[in-house]
Design a protein that fits this description.
The complex is a heterodimer of chains A (471) and B (99).
Chain A: H1 6-11, H2 13-21, H3 37-42, H4 48-57, E1 65-67, H5 69-76, E2 86-90, H6 101-114, E3 119-123, H7 127-138, E4 142-150, H8 158-169, E5 173-178, H9 183-194, E6 197-198, H10 204-225, E7 231-235, H11 240-251, E8 258-264, H12 287-295, H13 309-312, E9 315-319, H14 321-335, H15 345-356, E10 362-365, H16 377-386, E11 390-394, E12 404-408, E13 417-419, H17 421-435, H18 443-453, H19 457-470
Parallel strand pairs in A: 2-10, 3-4, 3-6, 4-5, 7-8, 7-10, 8-9, 11-12
Antiparallel strand pairs in A: 1-2, 9-13
Helix pairs in contact in A: 4-10, 5-15, 6-7, 6-10, 7-8, 10-11, 14-15, 17-19, 18-19
Chain B: E1 12-20, H1 31-34, E2 38-46, E3 57-61, E4 67-75
Antiparallel strand pairs in B: 1-2, 1-4, 2-3, 3-4
Classes of the chains: A alpha/beta (471), B mainly beta (99).
């Protein structure tokens, strides 16, 4: 009988993954740290048009791009004359299953069906589970979602419980787990038992699916406004949303568009802590995912992560929980759009950024997500209050994750704050040196690291010599 | 036996199982998490011919036909999440009260 102990299953990780992906990552490896990223991204062999066609068949893509005129006017009323960029919103809630994640799931489902897998498995705490379940349903595939739902007392945030319900609504089997990174072990065991396809968020399929999102924005903005978007803001967690969007923008002639990552600041809360689990008030789009994944992408359920956000981001903005809840309420009241709070993370930064840009500039918020019982800012706030977290209006600078959610009193207090990209880059290079000592980095390694951190070979060289000194 | 709810064979139930005991868990976990087991819940149709109650060790067949064993934690499990109690701090946002 197969040994299914934690150690034995983890030891079989590589063979399980190879069988569950139908893809051999070793072909792209060039050294312990470098690999041929573009060759890996090209491996699925689908053009942007192919992807759009696949997505249209399962109710994904071609979502509306709304100009948020009343919100733009409200922001302009808070800035100096001539400032206040126009804010646009790509209404991704219109995809089957209610979020942009359908784009990522659609290509995996297509691939799984084509390769003859009977079903798909995914490990996720988010909208992605519902997206995989919805896409699997449309292709007659079975689906298992492995989800971190509860703390050790069996309590789950309303937002996460709702996402569990949605997976079941689309016909998936949901394995609901308590807190912990061993979710990955359950994923491996399930892949081995079922022989299903691993619908990982981090395969080239998962990212190719998001490229149409960037492409749709780039094309429509150029058509309607006769120019590239000045800024596209992207809610950042695992990095796939940003990677795919940036690649799509570049593919349709928007190389000058600045791509800004945005996460909810959850500093101080530990992501694997049973006690902190339900005190986050956000289940995704936060720094608990965004920062570690940007500074070391290869911490995922596939050998090489296709989502490499640091390659593509021009800046990183942090927003507070209270700021996001404020803007979520404002979107409903001013624009008549009631959408889920996590998806409005980048909208919050867009408000702050628009204030610093000229009136003739365009800021595009590239996603929204569905809302409803549980997945609603009032659900999350009410849950937080019941757990003893203070909820009040005030200066968002006083927001303390897990202790106090401070909702701004006025729009001009929605400010966000920048996260220094050099911090992420240094942390990435430090990790790279742990994997493969800096004094052994070849010219090819340096070129890869420069591309992966969106810096120059000179910058990597300088970092390498300071890492050697530290040693 | 009165008062004890029984699940008939074929009933939709939730089963709970321990995937990893605290001793079997991954190294490097925060101490609060490390002290707890990794627990799993999954829904399915009760297998076998005997009725069962909460706490009984049973086998279920999930909605996609996979079998799982565990202790019944809920019979006819449902969702109770909602919009929560009204948080009145957000009501006035975007209204004339704050214009």
């Amino acid at each position: 009988m197969t040994d299914v102990s934690y150690e034995a299953v983890n030891a079989r990780k590589n063979e399980i993954m190879k069988a569950a992906l139908g893809m051999d990552y070793e072909a792209f490896e060039t050294s312990p740290i470098a690999f041929d990223y573009e060759a890996m991204m090209a491996a699925p062999g689908y053009s942007l048009d192919d992807i759009a066609r696949i997505q249209r068949a399962t109710k994904v893509g071609d979502t509306p791009l709304h100009e948020l005129t009343r919100l733009t006017r409200a922001v302009r009323a808070t800035c100096e004359p001539g400032k206040g960029a126009t804010i646009l919103l790509k209404d991704e809630a219109a995809n089957a299953s209610g979020s942009f994640k359908a784009r990522r799931a659609s290509i995996s489902a297509y691939e799984a069906e084509k390769k003859g897998y009977a079903g798909m498995v995914t490990a996720t705490s988010g909208n992605y589970g519902a997206a995989v379940a919805s896409q699997a349903a449309q292709r007659g595939l079975k689906c298992v979602v492995v989800q971190e739902v509860y703390d050790s007392h069996g309590v789950g945030q309303p937002e996460i419980v709702e996402k569990s319900r949605a997976c079941e609504a689309y016909g998936a089997e949901v394995l609901k787990l308590t807190v912990g990174p061993e979710l990955f072990y359950v994923l491996l065991r399930t892949l081995e038992e079922t022989k299903f396809f691993n619908a990982s968020l981090y395969t080239p399929f998962g990212i190719a699916g998001v490229e149409t999102l960037g492409a749709e924005i780039g094309r429509e903005v150029q058509q309607r406004y006769g120019k590239q978007p000045d800024v596209v803001v992207v809610t950042n967690a695992g990095g796939g949303n940003l990677t795919g969007t940036a690649r799509g923008l570049r593919a349709v002639g928007c190389p000058d568009t600045s791509v800004v990552a945005v996460s909810v600041d959850l500093s101080g809360l530990h992501m694997a802590s049973d006690n902190d689990f339900n005190n986050k008030s956000f289940t995704t789009g936060h720094t608990g995912f965004g920062v570690p994944f940007a500074s070391w992408p290869d911490r995922v359920d596939v050998p090489r992560n296709a989502a490499r956000a640091l390659r593509y981001m021009d800046a990183y903005e942090l927003v507070t929980q209270g700021e996001v809840f404020y803007v979520t309420e404002l979107l409903a009241k001013l624009e008549g759009l009631e959408r889920g709070p996590a998806g409005n993370t980048s909208l919050t930064a867009a408000v702050a950024l628009a204030r610093t840009l000229g009136e003739d500039q365009l800021v595009v918020v590239q996603e929204s997500e569905y809302t409803g019982a549980g997945k609603h800012h009032n659900s999350q706030l009410s849950f937080a209050r019941a757990r003893g977290i203070e909820v009040r209006r005030g200066d968002p600078a006083d927001n303390v994750p897990g202790k106090a959610i401070v909702i701004p009193e006025r729009l001009d207090q929605v400010a966000g704050k920048p996260l220094d990209l050099s911090r992420l880059r240094n942390s990435y290079l430090k990790k790279a040196a742990q994997v493969h000592p800096a004094d052994q980095w070849t010219a090819d390694d340096m070129a890869f690291l420069a591309a992966d951190t969106n810096t120059s070979v000179e910058d990597v060289l300088a970092a390498a010599s300071s890492l050697k000194e530290e040693k | 036996m009165s008062g004890v709810e029984l699940a008939r064979p074929g009933a939709w139930v939730e089963v709970e199982s321990t995937i990893l005991t605290p001793e079997q868990r991954a190294a490097g976990l925060p101490s609060d998490t490390a002290a707890t087991p990794l627990t799993q819940w999954v829904n399915g149709f009760l297998q076998g011919t005997a009725p069962a109650k909460v706490g009984d060790e049973v086998t279920v067949k999930s909605i996609i036909g996979r079998e799982h064993t565990g202790r019944i934690s809920r019979i006819n499990p449902s969702y109770h999440h909602s919009f929560g109690e009204t948080v009145d701090e957000i009501l006035t946002i975007g209204t004339e009260y704050e214009s």
